[in-house]
Structures are given as C-alpha cells and as structure tokens.
Amino acid sequence: KGSTNGQAASAVTGVTIDKSGVVYANFKTGDPKAIYQIPLATVASPDKLTLLSGNVYQANADSGVTVTSFANSNGLGYIQANSLEASNVDLAGQLT
What is the pTM (predicted TM-score) of this model? Predict the structure, then answer.
C-alpha cells in the first residue's frame, strides 16, 4: 500500500534553461524543478573537425580528443538561453 509524502501532481507549463545549461520544468503550481543539464564539448583544433551533412561536425584524429563538460567549467563558455540565431550567413562556413 502506497502513501503520499509530497506535493500533488501538477502539469508542466513550460521549460526554461539557465546559463549553466540546467533545464527546468516549470509546473502549474509555480515550482520549477531541474530535470537535466546540457553538456558541452570542445576539441583542441575545431577548424579540423569533419563536416557532415546537416551542419553537423565530427571529431577526428586531426581535431583532437573530445572533452565534454558543462557550461562555465573547464574553459567552456556559457549557454545563451532564450536567444535565437537569426544570421543570414552559412554558419557552417563561418565556424570553420
């Protein structure tokens, strides 16, 4: 037989992401809850990544070892939440 020991169920009304990449579920009751943290990755030579279809890049022997961590740590930047890239240039060409 189960018992209750917390808040009643509440609908998720949206999600938000902070600069550290923590994703929060926002509940109808007004209580946000951290549900995930977005990891970031870097390589020693990003200009040597292999370009795949769909503006996707893949690490290879020339680009170096992939180091994964979270925003604001190990030399990685932060996540710009609530932003939209609206550039009219080919980002794949600009990044490499």
Answer: 0.68
